[in-house]
Amino acid sequence: MSEHQPIHLSDYRPPAYLVKHTELTFDLDPSATRVKARLHLQRHPEADAGAPLVLDGEALELKAIAMDGQALEADEYAVSETELTVFQVPESFILDTEVEIAPKDNTALEGLYQSASMYCTQCEAEGFRRITFYPDRPDVMATFATTVIGDSGSEPVLLSNGNPVERGELPNGRHFATWEDPHPKPSYLFALVAGDLKKVEDHFTTMSGRDVTLQIWVEEENLNKTEHAMASLKRSMRWDEEAYGREYDLDLFMIVAVNDFNMGAMENKGLNIFNSAAVLTHPQTATDATFQRVEGIVAHEYFHNWSGNRVTCRDWFQLSLKEGFTVFRDQSFSAEVNSAPVKRIEEVSFFRTAQFAEDAGPTSHPVRPDSYIEIGNFYTLTIYEKGAEVVRMLSNLLGAETFRKGSDLYFARFDGQAVTIEDFVTCMAEVSGLDLSQFMRWYSQAGTPEIDANGEYDYANATYRLTLRQRTPATPGQPDKLPLHIPVRMGLVGTKSGRDLNLTLDGQDLGTDTVIHLREEEQEFLFTDVAEAPVPSLLRGFSAPVKLFFPYSREELAFLLANDSDGFNQWDAGQRLVLLALDDLIAAHRNGVEKVMDPRVVDAFRDLLSQDTDDQAVLAEMLMLPSEAYIAEQQLLVDVDAIHAARDFVKQSLAHELRDEFLTLYQENQSAGAYAPTPAQIGRRALKNVALSYLMSIEDPQAITAAKQQFDADHNMTDVRHALTLLVHSSRGDIADPALKAFGTKWAHDPLVMDQWFTLQVTRPQADALDRVRYLMQHPAFSLKNPNKVRALIGAFAGQNRVNFHRLDGEGYRLLADVVIELNRLNPEIAARIITPLTRWQRFDEARQDLMKAELERIRQEKLSPNLYEIIEKSLA
Ligand code: ARG
Ligand code: ZN
C-alpha cells in the first residue's frame, strides 16, 4: 500500500478540540527561526472526554512543550512525521510549544519561507502546519495575537494579520512588532511578512463612514508600480458595498508584493500576499492584459474578506464554496468596470479551452470532490471557474435581486462560521422558493455535459419544435451520470427580418429572449406563432457550462454572426463558422490535398471589417481565430501539426484577401496620447494588434516596417511586446534578434519583464524553439526556484508551443519531465501543475501517447511528493 492515502468527504468529523485564542511569537532567523505558540484549547462539546489532542505538524523540530504551565514528560506526548499527540488533556487548557524551522531552506514556498531577503508565508491550504503544531483545518477558528521579532536593519518592517498594537526595540539590533486579529480565523488565513519594504498608503471611507488605511508594501524599486492596484482596491471596496452590502471590518488593509509565490495571490485576513506579477503594473512594463488581471485579482482577494474569511469552508472539499463564489464576484465586478461582452467572451473562451480539457482528462473531478490525496492539487479550473459558472447559473435562476437576498441571508446566518456548499445553496432555495435538489448535481457530477439540439420549423402551423438531449460523459470514478438541470437562454432569430422573434411556449408569451429549463434526458419545446423560419440562438451568454451541438449550416452561422442580438452568441457563431472551415482544412492537410479557403469565412470577415463599431474590443475578439488549444479540444484525435497548418492557412488567406482592410484598421487605431488602461484604449490596441498579427502572418513588408516602428516607438508594453512577439515569431531574424537583445538588456533588472522576454521566445513556432528553452534555462535571470520563471519559460513552452512541445522525437516531453523531476524535490506544488500537458496523452496519436507515457513512467520511478504521486497515478490509471 502506498504512503499516500486518499481523504474522503464522507469521513468528515468535527474537531475534538477547538482553539479559542492563539498567541504566536516568531524570532526570525534564516536557518533557525523559533516559533512559540500558546494555544487556548477547549474540547468540542460533542467529543469524547478521553480524546487525545492531535495537532498537525510537518518539518518542525520540537524544542519545548508544556500544558497549563507544566513541562510535559516524554511519555505524555508523541511526535511523528506529521502529528503531535498529547495523550491526556483536560476539557480546557493552555498548550505551549516551541519549535525551530528553517525558512531559507523552504523551496516549496509553503509555510514560512524567504523570498530574496524577505520573510513571508503561504498557509492555504495546509502550510500552517509547517510553522507550528496546530489543528490545521478550516473549521478551527481562533483569534490571533502575533509578535514578530526581527533584525532592525534587514527587517525594518514586521507585519501580520489584524491591527498593530505594539512595537519596540530589543537588545542586539533586534526589534519587535505585535499584531492582534480580533476576527476568529482558520490557520490557513494566517500571514507574516518581514523585510526591507516600502509602502504606498491611501485611505478608504466605508459606507458607515469608517476610515480604513490602505497600504501596498513593495521593494523600493517597485514603488512606481502600485497605482493601478491601489485604484483597483478602492473600486473593489466600493463595489462590494454596493453590489453585496459588504463593508470592510478592520482599520487597516495591506497588500504585499512577493517575487517568489506559487499562485496568484492569497486573501490572508487584513494582509493579502500577492505574487508580484499579480499586483505590480506600469505602462512601460505591464500589458493591458496584466492591468486587467491585476484589477481582477486585487478584487478577488479583497472579496474573500467576506466570501472566504468571515464565512469560511468547513473542510477543503468545500473549497469551491469560497472560490467559485468569489470568482463569480470578481467576474461580475470586472464586467461592470470594463466592457462586459468582452469579459464574457474572454472568460468563456478560456473556460472552454482549459476547463473543458481538465474535465475530459484523467484528473477530472466534480466542483465538490469526494476525495483527494493532496488538496494542493485541487486549486483547479473546475473548483474556481466551473464553480463560478455554477454560482452564475444560480444567480440567473433566481434573478439578481433574489440572489442578493440569498447572499445577504448566507452572510448573516453564517458569519464567523465554517460551512458547506449545502448551506450556501439552501439560502438560495429559501429566499427563492425554488427546488434546487436536482441543481445540486452540478456540484457532485464531474465532466462537461453535452447537449444535442435539433430544430424543425413547420411553415403550415407556424411552429418551431426544439429538441434538446443531454448526456454527461463518464469520468474517472463516475461511470454513470444523471440528468442535470440546465438553464438554456435562447432566442429565435427570424431569417427574413433578422430580428428576434416573439417566443410563445405553452400559450405563454415569453418575450424575445428567454431561459428554457432542460431537466430530463430529452425534452421538446414547441414554440407557436413563429411568424417566419428562424435560426435558433442557443445558450446565449454561455448560460450553462456545457457543450452545445446544433447542426448549423455555414450560411446559418454567417447569418447569426451578422444578426444575433446577443453579442456573445454573435461571437460564438463566428467561432463555429471558422471551426467548420478548419475541419475541412485539417482533413485536407492530413490527406495531403491542396487546401482551399472557404469564401464564406472571408465574406463574413469582410463584413465585420466594414462595419462601423463603437466597441473595438468586441470587434477584436470577433476577428481572433480560435486558439490551437481550442481547436484541439474539438478533435477526437489531436493532430497538432495539421491544426497548426490549417490555422496558419486561414490566417494567411484572410490576410491576403483583406490586406487593405487590415492595414486601414491598423492605421486608424494607432496609440496616441498618454497610456491609460481604459476599456476604450484597450479596445483600440487590441484591434490594431489583431490587424498587425494578420498582416505579419504573410510577412507583408508594410507590416514588418510597422511592427519594427511599433517596437521602436516604445509607447507602452502592450504594443512593444506584441510587436516584438510578432517579429520574433517571424522569419525576420535580422530585425527580431537585435530588438530582442536590446529589450533583454534594457529590462535585465526587472524580473516581470524578463518573464515576458522568456515567454515570447519559447512560444515561437520555428523548429529551434526547444533549443532556445534549453539555452534560456541557463540564462542568469532564470531560476527553477522561482515559480514565475518556471511558468514563463517551461509552462509557456509546454502549454502554448504545441507543435514544438509535441515534437515526434519526444524531446519536448523529455525536457518537461526533466524539469518535473527536479521540481518534485524543490517545489511539489509547482511540479504537479507544470506537468499538466503530459497528463493529456489520451488524445494524441499512438506514437506520441507512447512517448508521453514513457516520460510519466520515468517520473514515477522517483520518490514522489503526494502532489505528483496523485497526478501521475491518475494519469496512468
Ligand atoms: N485562496 C487563494 C486564492 O484563490 C489561492 C490559494 C492557493 N493555494 C494553494 N496552495 N494552491 O486567491
Ligand atoms: Zn480565491
Short description:
It is built from 28 helices and 33 strands. It is of the alpha+beta class and 877 residues long. Helix 15 runs antiparallel to helix 16 (679-697).
Beta fraction: 15-25%
Number of domains: 5
Cα distance, first to last residue?
A: 16 Å
Ligand catalogue: arginine, zinc ion
Structural class: alpha+beta
Radius of gyration: 28 Å
| Gross CATH architecture of the largest domain | Alpha Horseshoe
Shape: globular
What order do the strands of the largest sheet run in, or round the barrel if closed?
6-5-9-3-2-12-15-14
The chain-level mean pLDDT equals 98
CATH class annotation of the largest domain = Mainly Alpha
- Largest pleated sheet: 8 strands, mixed
- Uncertain segments of ≥5 residues (pLDDT<50)? none
Task: Tell me the CATH superfamily of the largest domain.
Answer: Peptidase M1, alanyl aminopeptidase, C-terminal domain
The helicity comes to 40-55%
How many runs of DSSP E, i.e. beta strands? 33
Number of helices: 28
| Annotated CATH topology of the largest domain | Zincin-like fold
Protein name: Aminopeptidase N
Domain Aminopeptidase N-like N-terminal: 21-189
Enzyme class: hydrolase
Organism: Halomonas binhaiensis
Descriptive key words:
877 residues; alpha+beta; Immunoglobulin-like; Zincin-like; Neutral Protease, domain 2; 5 domains; 28 helices; 41% helix; binds arginine; binds zinc ion
Report what the structure shows.
With about 900 residues, the chain is of the alpha+beta class. The chain folds into 5 domains: about 1-195, Immunoglobulin-like (Sandwich), CATH 2.60.40; about 195-305, Zincin-like; about 310-445, Neutral Protease Domain 2 (Neutral Protease, domain 2); about 450-545, Aminopeptidase N, middle-beta domain (Immunoglobulin-like, Sandwich); about 595-875, Peptidase M1, alanyl aminopeptidase, C-terminal domain (Zincin-like fold), CATH 1.25.50. The protein is about 40% helix and about 20% strand. It is globular. The two termini are about 15 Å apart. It is an enzyme of class 3 (hydrolase).
